């Protein structure tokens, strides 16, 4: 079985982003970029499926600017066999990415697509769901355990107050949650090996996909800064303030 893993290049999770002065978005010039953390978990899971003999080939896909090649090389250093870059300088919204992935799924015919549950830059949490809908495939989101059993896959999901276990017929779409696994460290020999793995570049046009944005960002703003606190002289004043000012008791 072939597994397709979409990996997004995002601002590194350690970076504190700054809103642009014109409020059109955040400033990503000269900012460290990395693979979306949930996508690292997706690649790791695909590699584990391959190690268990449930997957035969892992194809990593990234949609975006030329530098997404670095993200694909990281995926290949973790263990993906090859990469496909869908190169575009346009803003790619989740629906556009889902359509690009659908076109690649039609070409590659994977048995499983494993995505992150959300990209930490836009926090959309949409692409996997939209892809499953476009393909008319079963989907299991927020997976914390994945087990391929013949022509089905069993997925455990963390839901409010417990765990839900689903059995899906393959081919299927899965999105990863934080506790699915802990991605392995990328070693230098594997980084070197990844440089030799095949990386193809295609474009939205060559896939016949219109990636024109459907949503318009009206404004991006910093969260309001926190007001200064006060020191209360005694418990009675604290209770009075909680009752009459904050109105929380
Ligand atoms: P989102 O719906 O934007 O929160 O993204 C959910 C998941 O879709 C990500 O974790 C990736 O696996 C995948 N994805 C989103 N955008 C891209 C992209 N530009 N290239 C590759 N994969 C993407």
TrEMBL record:
Coiled-coil stretches, from where to where?
Answer: none
Q: Which UniProt keywords apply?
A: Electron transport, Transport
Cofactor dependency: AMP
Q: Which GO terms describe its biological process?
A: carboxylic acid catabolic process
**What residue stretches are annotated with the Electron transfer flavoprotein alpha/beta-subunit N-terminal domain?**
23-211
Record-linked Gene3D superfamilies: HUPs (3.40.50.620)
Q: What does this protein do?
A: The electron transfer flavoprotein serves as a specific electron acceptor for other dehydrogenases. It transfers the electrons to the main respiratory chain via ETF-ubiquinone oxidoreductase (ETF dehydrogenase).
Q: Which PANTHER family match?
A: ELECTRON TRANSFER FLAVOPROTEIN BETA-SUBUNIT, ELECTRON TRANSFER FLAVOPROTEIN SUBUNIT BETA
How is this protein named in the record? Answer: Electron transfer flavoprotein subunit beta
Q: What is the protein's species of origin?
A: Castellaniella defragrans (strain DSM 12143 / CCUG 39792 / 65Phen)
């Amino acid at each position: 079985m072939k597994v397709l893993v979409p990996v997004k290049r995002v601002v590194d999770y350690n970076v504190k982003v700054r809103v642009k002065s014109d409020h059109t978005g955040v400033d990503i010039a000269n900012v460290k970029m990395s693979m979306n953390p949930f996508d690292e978990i997706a690649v790791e899971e695909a590699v584990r499926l391959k190690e268990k003999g449930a997957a035969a080939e892992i194809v990593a896909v990234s949609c975006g600017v030329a530098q997404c090649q670095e993200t694909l090389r990281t995926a290949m250093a973790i263990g993906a066999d090859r990469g496909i870059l869908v190169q575009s300088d346009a803003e790619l919204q989740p629906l556009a990415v889902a359509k690009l992935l659908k076109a690649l799924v039609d070409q590659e015919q994977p048995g499983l697509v494993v995505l992150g549950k959300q990209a930490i830059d836009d926090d959309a949490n949409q692409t996997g769901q939209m892809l499953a809908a476009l393909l008319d495939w079963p989907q299991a989101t927020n997976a914390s355990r994945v087990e391929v059993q013949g022509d089905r896959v069993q997925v455990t999901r963390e839901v409010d107050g417990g765990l839900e276990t689903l059995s899906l017929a393959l081919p299927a779409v899965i999105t990863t949650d934080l506790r699915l696994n802990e991605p392995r460290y990328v070693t230098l020999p594997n980084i070197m090996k990844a440089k030799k793995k095949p990386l193809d570049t295609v474009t939205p046009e060559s896939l016949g996909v219109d990636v024109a944005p459907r949503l318009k960002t009206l404004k991006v703003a910093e969260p309001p800064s926190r007001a200064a606190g006060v020191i209360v002289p005694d418990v009675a004043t604290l209770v009075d303030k909680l009752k009459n000012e904050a109105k929380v008791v």
